[in-house]
């Protein structure tokens, strides 16, 4: 059913050169969709697009640049689905450093997502969709990751409030738990595998989600035209413990 619904559809993946975004692009391509993926690094975007296969294009895009976002979407006639994977976080106490610097990654995620919607909304047909990326930190915040908690909560709230603004378009969010992606390489360093294994042992399913499992939820929301304003959790039960 998913394959039939997504075949020959135009899907834009914002932040599609690694992690969950890359998995979404790869799987949607297997379903016969026409993929456009973005990265802040043009060479990386093009290289990744080439490795996925035909009908995949890679472009540079910085969602913090409103003019660049507007110019990027201006070139499209129609976009059936968008997945916003772009985003990062900052760790540290609220009382440390400058508030403006601490909030920079949150603001990029918040305003970047809204810039994408503003620029693309006129290109999306009825029952097309935009999917955002939330996270388990919305329900299970931890000390030192308050920026992440705010960011994921905002992304999930987009899935609800934007339905009321543009009811002809479907807005949803995927909420991953800890997922084995390159995002954690810079945060956990060489201890990444050990840390993730320790976390996995605490989960009901006793495993860390793969990017492919999270991507499957994203594609499900794209292909099911009766889903809007929803958040699908792919966290192994993390928010229940």
Architecture overview:
There is one protein chain. It contains ten helices and seven strands. It is α/β, with parallel strands linked by helices. It has a seven-stranded parallel sheet, sandwiched between helices. Strand 2 (34-39), helix 3 (42-52) and strand 3 (56-60) form a beta-alpha-beta unit. Helix 4 packs parallel to helix 6 and helix 6 packs parallel to helix 7 (146-165). The chain is globular, with a radius of gyration of 17 Å. The mean pLDDT is 92.
Please outline what is shown here.
The chain has helices at 2-6, 19-30, 42-52, 66-74, 99-102, 104-120, 146-165, 183-188, 192-202, 211-223; strands spanning 10-14, 34-39, 56-60, 81-84, 129-133, 170-176, 231-234. By secondary structure, it is an alpha/beta fold.
Keywords:
241 residues, 7-stranded parallel sheet, alpha/beta, 45% helix, globular
In terms of structural class, how would the helical and strand content be classed? alpha/beta
Largest sheet: 7 strands, parallel
Mean pLDDT: 92
Helical amount: 40-55%
Which percent range describes the beta-strand content?
Answer: 5-15%
- Helix/strand order, N-terminal first: HEHEHEHEHHEHEHHHE
Gap between N and C termini: 34 Å
Whole-angstrom Rg: 17 Å
Q: How many helical elements?
A: 10
Could you name the ranges where pLDDT drops below 50 across 5 or more consecutive residues? none
Going across the major beta sheet, what is the strand order?
Answer: 3-2-1-4-5-6-7
Total number of β-strand segments?
Answer: 7
User: Which outline best applies?
Assistant: globular
């Amino acid at each position: 059913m998913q394959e039939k619904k997504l075949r020959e559809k135009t899907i834009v993946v914002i932040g599609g050169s690694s992690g969950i975004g890359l998995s979404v692009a790869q799987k949607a391509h297997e379903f016969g969709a026409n993929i456009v993926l973005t990265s802040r690094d043009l060479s990386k975007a093009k290289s990744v697009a080439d490795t996925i296969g035909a009908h995949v294009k890679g472009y540079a895009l910085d969602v913090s640049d409103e003019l660049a976002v507007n110019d990027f979407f201006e070139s499209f006639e129609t976009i059936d689905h968008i997945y916003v994977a772009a985003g990062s976080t900052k760790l540290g106490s609220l009382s440390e450093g400058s508030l403006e610097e601490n909030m920079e990654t949150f603001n990029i995620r918040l305003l970047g997502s809204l810039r994408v919607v503003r620029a693309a909304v006129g290109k999306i047909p009825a029952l097309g969709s935009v999917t955002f990326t939330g996270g388990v930190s919305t329900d299970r915040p931890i000390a030192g990751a308050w920026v992440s908690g705010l960011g994921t909560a905002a992304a999930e709230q987009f899935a609800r409030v934007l339905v009321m603004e543009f009811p002809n378009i479907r807005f949803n969010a995927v909420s991953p738990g800890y997922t084995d992606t390159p995002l954690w390489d810079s945060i956990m360093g060489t201890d990444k595998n050990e840390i993730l294994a320790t976390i996995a042992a605490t989960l009901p399913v006793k495993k860390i989600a793969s990017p492919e499992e999270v991507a499957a939820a994203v594609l499900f929301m794209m292909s099911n035209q009766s889903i809007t304003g929803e958040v699908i959790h792919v966290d192994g039960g993390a928010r229940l413990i």
